[in-house]
Specification:
CATH class of chain A: Alpha Beta
Number of helices of chain B: 14
CATH superfamily of the largest domain in chain B: Ribosomal protein S10
Number of domains of chain B: 4
Structural class of chain A: alpha/beta
CATH class of the largest domain in chain B: Alpha Beta
CATH superfamily of chain A: Response regulator
Radius of gyration of chain B: 29 Å
Oligomer: heterodimer
Order of helices and strands of chain A: EHEHEHEHEH
Shape of chain B: globular
Helix content of chain A: 25-40%
Helix content of chain B: 40-55%
Shape of chain A: globular
Distance between the termini of chain A: 37 Å
Radius of gyration of chain A: 14 Å
CATH topology of the largest domain in chain B: Alpha-Beta Plaits
Number of strands of chain A: 5
Structural class of chain B: alpha/beta
Strand order of the largest sheet of chain A: 2-1-3-4-5
Largest interface: A-B, 34 and 43 residues
Strand content of chain B: 15-25%
């Protein structure tokens, strides 16, 4: 089976690279966008299986991206995981209302991110190994 | 420009008193005061709700309202209108108490000097305006501070994310093998990153503490769950120092009336502290017992064999930003907010927190939570004035998961939202208690007890269904719901039983009914 495609929309280049390395190690193919507008155009170009979306973005924000994607029939059903530094509650609620599958707060725990991705893609849990350094909290 | 007359509402059922009051305004310029006079509290409420009143003069003995209740009702109808209480000589103490309920002033009938009244009204209005302005400024300041803290914690999180990502990438060998020394140093980086992360969270949390808005949802809560969670979460940190972390839960500890997420948070802070301040190979124990000094409470104790603190410090450690000063202890650093957050959370759940410690002798942190009791929860619904034969209806709302892919955490989060939704929509005009969220089995079950007050259980059910049907978050989460009701026979207190006995009896009836209902649903869920 071809590896699943994931689009990472985040304006921080370091975070994009970090996620790419982690996802690549778990056999996902990655694409990138650094702002809201290219988030939508890259999604159209690559038709990813899943989108990891930051909320604070130039040229719109994560919510704009979700809204635009919803209006494009071919892209409307792509599962979205919001990964944001913004504080929970209000944003979490809004993200869920906008159709996000999950809301994770930065700094993200890699094991959790991978688990949520697998869940959203309907993959069986625990097939790929998360980092032992991200187990537990604090 | 001509000044608009001040609109004065006089609520007073004694015609003689009203006449006297009107006379007192006769010396004022025509058009400076306009007086509306009403006899009953219900009329006053309707009038106040319409708006346009500048100040209310309120008698506390009306045909349809008495004492402080009238003050509360007037404040509820128009919270921003200044209020002056009119009282008799014998009721001065009560009037003084009304001031604490939001009245600006009181005047004793028969002792009001005629010229003084208009002046008192103007002063009351001024005072009220100044108070409102001060409150507004304070609110703005709080909002600014919250916004600032939220902004700062947001800005700090992004770079921290990148640091954490790359450290764990290196540690996982994704960029090549590490030698033992490199690994050790990177582990130190990661540990510090995690600590920074928890400080940022504390910072955000504490802005909530000060605004008094850390959310607390009281419900029937099992402390053993919170203890298991805490031990699970911190076992790793304890093991790393060779510390034995154990729990000791007395048999049959009752459930408490608390917010399960907050109980976990409190325990994690206390145990995390205990581990930090306990040297290699020490012990940390969590105990749960009924509180001997007051059996209505459950006592949780976190005992460590650590460095301890002087007895003179045991109160100060709960203050904001307090730090045990021990510069040698590298891993003791934090913002000094944890215990402060704990104290706020415990106090607001009706419990107490205290510490016992001596230098070098270890510490014992004790926390109490009120034991969950259905009779206590029922008590307001059976208060003296409501004790007439109000029928009770039990409404059960079940939230289930259709798809099954939701993690427990996500589902619990959704269910919390729905609970909030129900509370908002029903609390406003019905006397409803939401005592239990039972998560036994695959479904989340909400139990509600409703004092129907004339509105039947069917109507409540319909309303809940409509509310849940319209809930986006429920639909998006793929959760299902069903609501049913069961009216209880009219319950009457018989002359031989005390109020406590009566409540106990009603509670037992309800508990039994609930158990039957829950096991029936669990059976049908397979």
């Amino acid at each position: 089976m071809d590896s699943r495609k994931i689009l990472i929309v985040d304006d921080n280049a370091d975070i994009r690279l970090g996620m790419h390395l982690r996802l690549k190690a778990n056999q996902y193919e990655t694409f990138f966008a650094a702002d809201a507008l290219s988030g939508v155009t890259e999604a159209q170009k690559h038709r990813p299986d899943l989108i990891i979306l930051d909320l604070g973005l130039p040229a719109g924000d994560g919510f704009t991206v979700m809204e635009r994607l919803k209006q494009i029939p071919l892209l409307a059903a792509i599962p979205i995981i919001v990964v944001s530094a913004r504080n929970g509650l209000g944003n979490q609620k809004r993200a869920h209302e906008a159709g996000a599958k999950a809301f994770l707060q930065k700094p993200v725990n890699d094991a959790e991110l991978l688990a949520v991705i697998r869940q959203a893609l309907g993959e069986p849990a625990g097939t790929k190994k998360p980092s032992p350094y991200d187990q537990g909290s604090v | 420009m001509k000044k608009k007359p001040l609109q004065v509402l006089v609520v007073e059922d004694n015609a003689g008193d009203v006449r006297l009051l009107r006379e007192m305004f006769s010396g004022e310029k025509v058009g400076s005061f306009e007086i509306t006079h009403l006899l009953r509290m219900s009329e006053a409420e309707a009038h106040l709700a319409k708006g346009g009143v500048d100040i209310t003069l309120l008698d506390m003995g009306l045909p349809d309202g008495h004492g402080l209740e009238t003050v509360r009702r007037a404040r509820a109808a128009a919270p921003n209108i200044p209020l002056i209480i009119l009282t008799g000589l014998d009721d001065e103490a009560l009037a003084a108490e009304a001031m604490t309920q939001g009245a600006q002033d009181y005047m004793i009938k028969g002792q009001i000097e005629s010229r003084a009244l208009p002046r008192a009204l103007r002063h009351a209005i001024d005072r009220h305006r100044m108070q409102t302005e001060t409150d507004l400024i304070r609110t703005h300041q709080m909002e600014f501070k919250d916004e600032f803290l939220s902004h700062v914690s947001h800005e700090l999180r992004s770079p921290l994310t990148a640091v954490r990502q790359f450290v764990s990438i290196l540690l996982d060998g994704l960029a090549g093998d590490l030698n033992p020394e490199q690994r050790q140093y990177l582990e130190i980086v990661l540990r510090n990153v995690k600590q920074l992360h928890s400080m940022i969270n504390d910072l955000f949390e504490v802005s909530g503490v000060q605004a008094g808005k850390l959310k607390i949802e009281l419900q029937c809560t099992l402390v053993s769950d919170a203890i298991a969670y805490t031990v699970n979460t911190l076992q790793g940190a304890a093991a790393a120092k060779g510390i034995v972390l154990s729990s000791d839960i007395a048999r049959n500890v009752p459930s408490v009336c608390a917010d399960p997420a907050r109980v976990r948070q409190i325990l994690v802070i206390l145990v995390d502290n205990a581990i930090k301040f306990t040297p290699q190979n020490g012990t940390v124990t969590i105990q749960a017992r009924i509180f001997e000094e007051d059996p209505d409470f459950l006592l949780l104790k976190v005992t460590d064999s650590g460095c301890g603190i002087g007895p003179e410090m045991t109160e100060r450690i709960f203050e904001r930003l307090f730090q045990a000063s021990d510069p040698d202890a590298a891993d003791h650093n934090g913002l000094g907010l944890g215990l402060y957050i704990c104290k706020d959370l415990v106090t607001r759940q009706g419990g107490k927190i205290w510490a016992k410690s001596e230098l070098g002798q270890g510490s014992i942190f004790s926390v109490t939570f009120p034991i969950f009791s259905l009779p206590k929860l029922l008590a307001p619904a059976f208060s003296e004035e409501r004790q007439a034969e109000c029928p009770i209806t039990i409404v059960l709302t079940e939230i289930g998961s259709q798809t099954g892919w939701l993690s427990n955490e996500v589902r619990a989060e959704q269910c919390r939202g729905i609970r909030e939704l129900l509370r908002e929509s029903l609390y406003s005009d019905l006397d409803i208690l939401l005592p239990k969220m039972d998560s036994a089995g695959p479904a989340e079950l909400f139990l509600m007890l409703a004092m129907t007050d004339g509105i039947g259980g069917e109507a409540i059910c319909k309303r809940i269904r409509r509310q849940l049907d319209g809930s986006d978050r429920l639909r998006q989460a793929g959760l299902t719901h069903s609501t049913s009701y069961r009216p209880l026979e009219t319950i009457k207190r018989n002359s031989t039983e005390s109020k406590e006995e009566f409540l106990e009896r009603v509670a037992t009836d309800i508990q039994e009914l609930m158990n039957v209902e829950i096991s029936a649903r669990q059976a049908s869920n397979g």
